[in-house]
Design a protein that fits this description.
single chain, 181 residues, alpha+beta, five-stranded mixed β-sheet, two-stranded antiparallel ribbon, 7 helices, 19% strand
């Protein structure tokens, strides 16, 4: 098993946690800012890993203890040798009003992470932009969309269902402008 310490990159830490959960038969998907960190090649830095799950806390606690994490409070876990917190938001996995079924996987040198796809990650960030007027959400969505193929039709249709067609138009204009030579 990979040692957890302050030098372990966020993607590899996420893989250690993801593999430990999967080995115990627990279903959890990485979401939130740490997915942006991974997909933006560290342009954006998040210091917590949000694994969305419907699993019971006592099962999560046992697995997290096996890799050196202790429950800090609520659904938060800390490791004495890592600056990254791990949190377990309650499922089901969703962005806005849409429950997600399929997710992505990223393989690292220490294991595989189950996480949002790039398109889902952009939706997640746009949700914070749309629903909480968070300008950082838009910037993070653009960071991911500039580096990864995203399904623009899915983003547009989801945005319309969320009641934010104009927000999608702003995102698309900014994305198009960033791609011009």
């Amino acid at each position: 098993m990979t040692a957890i310490d302050e030098t372990l990159p966020v993607a590899e830490l996420a893989a250690v946690v993801s593999e430990a959960l999967a080995s115990a038969g627990l279903d959890a998907v990485l979401s939130g800012g740490s997915v942006v960190t991974i997909y933006s090649d560290n342009e954006y830095q998040s210091f917590d890993l949000d694994f969305v799950t419907t699993e019971r806390m006592n099962r999560l606690e046992d697995v997290m203890a096996s890799i050196g994490y202790q429950r800090a409070s609520g659904r938060h876990f800390e490791h004495p040798s890592s600056r990254y917190l791990v949190e377990f938001p309650s499922g089901p996995l969703s962005v806005g009003d849409e429950v997600l079924r399929d997710t992505g996987r990223v393989t690292t040198p220490v294991g595989t992470i189950r996480l949002l796809t790039p398109t889902q990650c952009v939706m997640d960030r746009l949700a914070s932009y749309y629903h909480w007027s968070d300008p950082q959400g838009l910037e993070q969505a653009l960071m991911v969309a500039k580096r990864h193929e995203v399904i623009l039709d899915d983003l547009k249709n989801w945005s319309i269902r969320e009641g934010h067609a104009a927000g999608f138009d702003r995102f698309k204009q900014r994305l198009d402008a960033s791609r011009r030579p």
